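Side project, low priority. Logging it here so it doesn't get lost.
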Amino acid sequence: MRAFVHACFLSLIAVGAGSQRCQAADPTPATASSAHPRVVVTFANAPRQSPGPAGSTGRRYTGDGYLLAQSAHTQAKRVATKYSLHEIANWPIRSLAIHCVVYEILDSRSVASVLAELSKDSTVALAEPLSEFHTLTDTKSTTTSLATTTTGTPYNDPLYDLQTNLTALGIAAAHETTQGVGVRIGLIDTGVDTRHPDLRGRIVRTKSFVEDRAFAKDKATSAAAYRHGTAMAGLIAAVANNHIGIVGIAPQAQIEVFEACWQLQPDNDAAVCNTFTLAKALAAALDSGIALINMSIAGPADPLLTSLVEVAIKRGVVFVGAAAHPADAFPTSIAGVIAAQGEQQTVRADAFSVPANHILTLRPDGQYDFESGTSVAAAELTGIVALLMSSSDARLTTGAIVSLLKDSAATAGGSATVASGTINVNGALTKLTEHKGALVQVKRRLNSSL
């Protein structure tokens, strides 16, 4: 399918030539597929100087930034010796004031038995498995035609007519009032092909937390290894009216990429992340001041990651996650994370449903293809939230966004331009406008009474 799209539209697009990544300084654990099981252990770590950016390293890590306290360093070494563990990676997490260490269990002991021993150690703040998380796309091919039509559209992007999700959501009408200007979105995913012509100017920065690629059979670092992240970025913010490809839901929003996941096979969207890489990415996103974060991933409940998300939510960060099977509790089981699901794949009653079947989006190297799955739903909902945030004069809380979305979902079936069962984007924007108007009237009455 990808080759077909590329052949059909090569004359319409400039082929990307790769992707740029920033490297973090400290080592990253390979993956849960290692021959030896791994655990994550944290220790209290009070900083000894003004902290630097997330992901930066203390002098013990050959850099400048948030320093590792001597006590935490000593305890980490002591634990390795006492419990016969091999330390393979470490990083002080500023936002939680802890030192995080990944250990390998080199003998035949189980993870459960080692965690039971560590839980009795008074110097250990937290001990948990090195969990694995996965993307949620359906890579089954589709027979949907890719021939463009000649019907009148509000965009000059040649593939817009194939974006049935935008029609169902009423995005063209929404774009008359807002397109995501001023909203910066954190994308925690695989890397993104920043040179894709339909993302030009949309990716403001990338930072990688996946330096050790020993887990990848071909150790690929080309743009082709960034399928999932590129697809999600395109759904959210592909450039509109550039005579190229498709239209993003929030085409004037900006994306900051935090690469925490890696692609498992060539030409396949399946990708995984782990506790350590996600913790680094989340902390970096929190330090960056981003107000909206997309996580098109799912996995088991994870205490360390939950703590980071909860700290961010308390600071006003809005999270959108992919609702998955109940066994995949992270991130959407965390109170305050907005859950998204596909209309045909109802997973949770409290998740917002959007079109997520055969949705056209980007592929690396200037290509396009159809994508399905809950990852798609989360990216689409992130774009919708960006439209609401851009349209508001004040910073919207998660509660306010959820209220607007619930009200719009309840009335979506009555709209002639919105498919039954989907979020009514324009209904939510109308309610937001009405709320702003009511506030203006209140202010005027207060001023007149003075």
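Brief comment: The first helix runs from residue 2 to 9.
Revisit when time allows.
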